[in-house]
Amino acid sequence: MQRYIAIRFAQGLIALLAVTIIVFGLSRLTGDPSTMILGLDATAEDYERLQQRLGLDRPLVVQYGVYMGNVLQGDLGESIKYPELGAGGAVIRRLPATLYLAGVSLLLAIGIGVPLGVLSAVRRDTPFDSSSKVLALLGQSVPNFWMGLMMMWIFAVQLGWLPTSGTGGIKHFIMPAITLGSFQIAAITRLVRSAMLETLDSEYVKLARIKGVSEWKVVWKHCLRNAALTPLTYFGVIAAVTLTGSVTTETVFNWPGTGLLAFQSVLSRDFELIQALVLVFSGIFVFSSFVVDILYAYLDPRIRYASS
Amino acid sequence: MAVELRPAPETTLNKASQAAVRALRLMGMARRLPKFPVFLLLLVLVIPAIFAEVITPYGPLDSPQGIRGRLEPPVFAGGTWQHILGTDLTGRDILTRIIYGSRVSITIAGIGIAIAGTIGVTLGIIAGYYGGLVDSVIMRLVDISLSIPPVLLALTLATVLDPSFRTVIIVVGALLWSIYCRQVRGDTLSVRTQDYISRARVSGASDVRIMLRHVLPNITNTLIVLATLQVGFVILLEAGLSFLGVGLSRPTPAWGLMVADGREVIIRAWWVALWPGLAIMLTVFGFNLLGDWLRDRLDPRLRQL
């Protein structure tokens, strides 16, 4: 187990290192920042002085070293729009709003998706099952920015039940959380359903039934415990979809999180801020898939033993 | 039992008969395709894309009544038969633009998946077939590409490259190749140990020939299922990027861009955003249904989100 953790940790670090190289490479592709900073009437001397000050006259490897050194000290670069905070500070200030929203939408996805998937599997091939299957497939087909807009039009503009955008009370959470969670609800329903179908058919479930365990306990305890492992494997995909969705969802609902920040920084060409966002998100991403893998290996001994 | 090691002679006749058998099999399969998704996709995507000029009286960029004909509601909400689904902010016919938009979606999905598939399949077969160091390096690359959040990669690339068709294709390719690569590598690993592979090797087939003629045909089922399921993903991705302003650029009749246009007038004119979004949803739904059906028939063990 320790060996497994160590290997996965090293793999995560390598991936993150590669991300910094890609991010750094892309930043050098955007062109020479000194020509943007200097005006048209700048002399060659001005240009050289600035190049020296910014370290652009040194070899790329050295520049990358300096960049990495800064990153490791927590300095993620400067931001055009938030000069006093810096890029890292701006990301961190916006992070809680996104995490809240993502958390609520994941809870929503689990709270709706798991029971729906279980009931669907138990009542296989009934009208309930078919309609939940179609609903789940529709949930995976709907563009979430469009769904958000349509909800906004119906529930905020026409009916006036919910606020159109921004943060505030619980009411502000409802539409963004459903928008962000639509794909995940559908995904979890489908995954739980197919995993449940497999376990409902297994030997130990038959044994439990023969033993006279109540149907309720068979389904919700014996089966679900084992079926819950499968969706966990896909947590990486689900986390990616959530982060992806946060950009469009936050843009539609004007939610002041990192997704909106990403959108705004693209509009204002705030490149170092985008870099910082990519880095922070990749970090969260790599870390969460690391935790999931460890959790998975802990819950399913077969993984542990196969890899060591 | 005698083992025939010599490969069958490749006469023209032999090839022709093989092609005929394959065509017949495809036709039989086409007839068994599920009716609803095929009908849906023909209606929303294929027929509009092929016959756009014939169906529509206007061009995708025309405003027939000029600026005075802007934001006309659909026919059932007080509009006229001139513009069945209404007009947008500059007076362009929404139905016409949706019909032309089907071409944009098909093109992006087709080219993007073809590129990602070619790269991913090639690297995946090589990794699975040779194993060892090559395998480790390729799989590390896959890990890395999977650890960058998709939309942020897209946003970064789009700021570096400017929004364009090419950018969207690069983003799609950069995101999807790793998924093919991982799947194909796994399949190759399990095919590699089969008897017919070692027999091919004994009979003197080169590595490239074995990979192309013996491994690839045996993993195509998985690839067909994967590609079908990804069409929907690519269409959604392109729409999302265009909506955010980092995908295709105006005045291309891309569905995502049309929803973005509708967002600005959502309070006054709901129809501008409604129809293109519906087109996206129905198309993606059709491909997801088709992909699910194919998976159940061709490759039941491939479970995907």
Just name the CATH architecture of chain A.
Answer: Orthogonal Bundle
The multimeric state of the shown protein is: heterodimer
Q: Greatest interface and its residue counts? A: A-B, 58 and 46 residues
Distance between the termini of chain A: 8 Å
Number of domains of chain A: 1
Q: Write the CATH homologous superfamily of chain B.
A: MetI-like
Kindly report the name of the CATH homologous superfamily of chain A: MetI-like
The amount of helix of chain B comes to over 70%
Whole-number total of structural domains of chain B = 1
CATH fold category name of chain A: MetI-like fold
Mean of pLDDT of chain B: 81
The unreliable regions of chain A are none
CATH topology of chain B: MetI-like fold
CATH architectural name of chain B = Orthogonal Bundle
Low-confidence stretches of chain B: none
Can you tell me about this structure?
- The complex is a heterodimer of chains A (308) and B (305).
- With 308 residues, chain A is an all-alpha fold.
- Chain A has a single domain (86-307), classed as MetI-like fold, CATH 1.10.3720.
- Chain A has helices at residues 2-29, 33-37, 44-54, 60-72, 86-122, 127-141, 144-158, 170-200, 203-211, 215-227, 229-233, 235-253, 258-267, 271-299, 301-307.
- In chain A, helix 6 packs across helix 8 (170-200) and helix 7 (144-158) packs across helix 12 (235-253).
- The radius of gyration of chain A is 24 Å and the shape is flat.
- With 305 residues, chain B is mainly α.
- Chain B has a single domain, classed as MetI-like (MetI-like fold, Orthogonal Bundle).
- Chain B contains 10 helices and no strands.
- Chain B is elongated.
- At the A-B interface, helix 1, helix 6, helix 7, helix 8 and helix 12 of A face helix 4, helix 5, helix 8, helix 9 and helix 10 of B.
